[in-house]
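@channel sequence for tomorrow's demo:
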Amino acid sequence: SPLQNGLGDRFLVEGELIDALSASRNTVRAVLQQLAKDGLVTRSPKRGTRSAAAVKLRINQLSPVREFGGDASIRTELKTLEYRTLGGLRLVRERLRLPPDWTVLMIESLLMQDTQPLGISVSYIAMHPDQSRDLEFNEPDPLLFLERQLDVKITGSRTTIGATAADEQSVALVGVVLGAPMIFLEDILEDASGQPRASSRTSSNQII
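structure tokens (generated this afternoon):
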């Protein structure tokens, strides 16, 4: 989008943002209103919405995976809420391209900065039948869990950024208003063979 190409003073077209972010018109408008309050865009009835300056969002600032790098001034951590082995969730199995006999471990966590909850992270980890025994559920970071618990080396990843509306869980855990715009970042982690081993999605109402 124009907010990410390094060029300032560009028109932001709602229709293009809706398509690019897979978000509703109401969500895009709410986000643009917040950006206007922060001084990152300017809005006027006749001129539309324009970026006020060059804005770049660094993916590694949004990702909870420490090994992907990040600004040393940003101190975030994951606080585990729940570990759960899942059955046949079709969408997750298709997303990870799982063989029939593999299982899925779900890890749900809060993304924290000091004591302030910034967002919710949900990871789905693909486990070979021989890997689902004698695990220690004490690591919310999906990359570290794969490497330390399952002895899987991650060699590739694909990242998607989009927007969604806050649901009731976000209201309860993060303290946002129901329906408020939230940025989400999803990482698909792959092993050396190209097999997806985890899908990790973090939703936050703040640009960290």
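heads up for whoever presents: Residues 1-8, 64-73 have pLDDT under 50 and may be disordered.
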